[in-house]
Amino acid sequence: MIEKRIRDKYVPTIGLEVHAQLATESKIFASDSNSFGDHPNTNISTITLGHPGTMPKLNQKVVDFALKLGLACNCDINKESYFDRKNYFYPDLPKGYQLTQDRFPICVGGGVKIRLENGEDRIVELHKIHMEEDAGKSIHVEGKNYTQVDLNRAGVPLLEIVTEPDIFSSEQAVAFLTEIRKIVRYLGICDGNMEEGSLRCDANISVRLNSETTLGKKVEVKNMNSIRNVSRAIEHEIERQITLVERGEEVISETRTFDVTTGTTSGMRTKEELNDYRYFPDPDLSPVQVTDEWIAKVKSEMPALPEELFNEFVAVYQLPVYNANVLTDDQAMALYFKEVCRHTTEYRAVSNWLMGIVKSHLNDTSTDLRDFPLRADVLASLIDLIKAGKVSNSVASQQLFPYLLENTSVTVEQAAEILNVIQDSSEDAIQPMIDEVLEAFPDKVKAYRNGKKGLVGMFMGEVMKKTKGKVDPQVANKMLRESLESQ
Ligand code: MN
Hints:
Bound molecules: manganese (II) ion
Radius of gyration: 30 Å
Oligomer: single chain
């Protein structure tokens, strides 16, 4: 760790390249199945293998998905875009080139709004979003002197999202990736799973002195398979580069790989060894042309985005920013919240229930909200029942909630009757029980009246035991104190 005083002399500048694997049925230029985890080399047609005479045909779904993401990020859509052949040799690239929109992308500009820990928000500018195909996968078998190749992934559609060098800390990078992952999931175009490689991120990182205006030499870091590791890699790289500059040494422009176990980066290849990719438009593919109608159709099919729901939750449902953030993290959860709020106006209580009891239930049972058995209107009635003072919060969460999960055909009122948990908080119902408790502990009552006020907790426990939790604790507590103080 370098001193803060030294670190503060520098500004880190970060640009990200994110590859999102698209959740289409088939590949980008062939009808081979696009499914993860199949037996190696089973989803490979002659088109994917690039056999002579085969012709690629662009999957329209991929264009739909690109337009969706482009619209979600306020990009400009190019009505005409092209696929280039990017030529290089590698065992997992059967055609000897990758088809990519590197030079003439479908989406340019735009930005993604990020929210930071301190509550500030800002827009990270995008350079472009383009379509391309994935390569196969080399599997380096440990302890063996050969490498295996699985070409199932060759031709899987990707969207590459490239930011401007407009990110200035690891925290901002994390916020950006979190937001992008949320957006692709909401749009249903990518599962956003970084561990399985369906969302991959490379980071370009440089540092410069505060006083300088030109950017320092940039280093590209690869192989970070989680958002946390992206953050670790950026932190390490910033410190490594500052240390070099402080020593009067030079940062070399190179590609480095991140090591998960050590949390450090190491050099893979320098930019001097850069390939000449000999880009040229693929002669077998016509330009991608999108019409205004096409764009309008995609637009009409767009779901509400996380940012939109977040704003709605804060403005309309009056939720605290924290709650709105947690709920919109997951689309299913956000939509369920809205559904419950169609049946009750206790919005804040609904948000607390979803973030607390419902979420822990889903975690404990490792289930998805889609399999959650409680209907929105049932949860709403339960919350209303608490609000009406008919049951306490703890009875609702510890007794009614589990019962309703098991018995989906009963109403909340029926369940409360069956479990006999409706609380009667009328004074007539509570007073006799308080009297009984005081009679049972005459010594403690004397001690209380002589100043041992701490005993109130013990009395309260006895009262709640007697009432089996069926009275409003606040009412009972007030009445108990009054009884103890009287005489
Ligand atoms: Mn790429």
